[in-house]
Amino acid sequence: MNIMDEFDVIDIQPELRLIVNALAKAIGLDTRSYLTGSNMDTNNAIILLRGDFINTNLRDMVVAINDNLELKHFKRFVWTGSLLIDRKHNITITISARPTLNRIKGVKGRKNPHYLQSMCHVLNGDLKAECKQMTLADMEGVDFDPPFADEVYGADFDSIIDAAAISQDEGYRHCVIAYETERLEIKSLSLLILDADLDVVKDISLMDLLQPDFSTLTAEVAAVEEAPQKRDAHSLVKVRKDIKSKNSNEPDKKPEISTKREEVGKQA
Question: Which residue intervals make up region (Disordered) (predicted)?
Fold first, then answer.
């Protein structure tokens, strides 16, 4: 089954572009501005602060512009998460750093499922990744029960999405926009469709939707332009000194005066 038969990524490109721009601003300009203005000795809060920037930008730069998208908040213990609902294309979207995404499956002994496990179990449960991540149980041929019953995933889904928003049988799919960063810049960006085990069914690069970070480019251009200006200024000072030296009214020392002194010294 080709999951992309159900909705074409080209159809949702305007929505994706808005989301990508909101994400890039949160990671780049917003975080950079915070760090520049911060007088804190350490910045441990920046990890959670990035999520606040993302959620705020989704509100101001996405749902405020595109009527197809709704922003839904959900409480998760000590923090608040956000997801987007696209009713036109019947999809829900969350954003996750890829390293965080990779760690979800590695956590053992959960008392409750991760929200992404519940979303994908309910909305993408009929999908199966072609390449499944092997576990020790798979290698040994042991068939373990899933960590949670279907009813647990269903109840958790309802608490996240709210039955008034969408129901489990409306045919929605869940997508994840996964990103990786380096020095406040996005280095990889993809639209992922995951199965119930969070294995990748489809991985579609979104890097082409990224717009240049003009704040970074402006800073780099300014730095490049500043260097020649400094060199020109130093050169101008040197030229002025040379002109002053040449136009000085002080009489030049005459060689014959020093010669006479030397001759007097010799006579003595």
Answer: 227-268
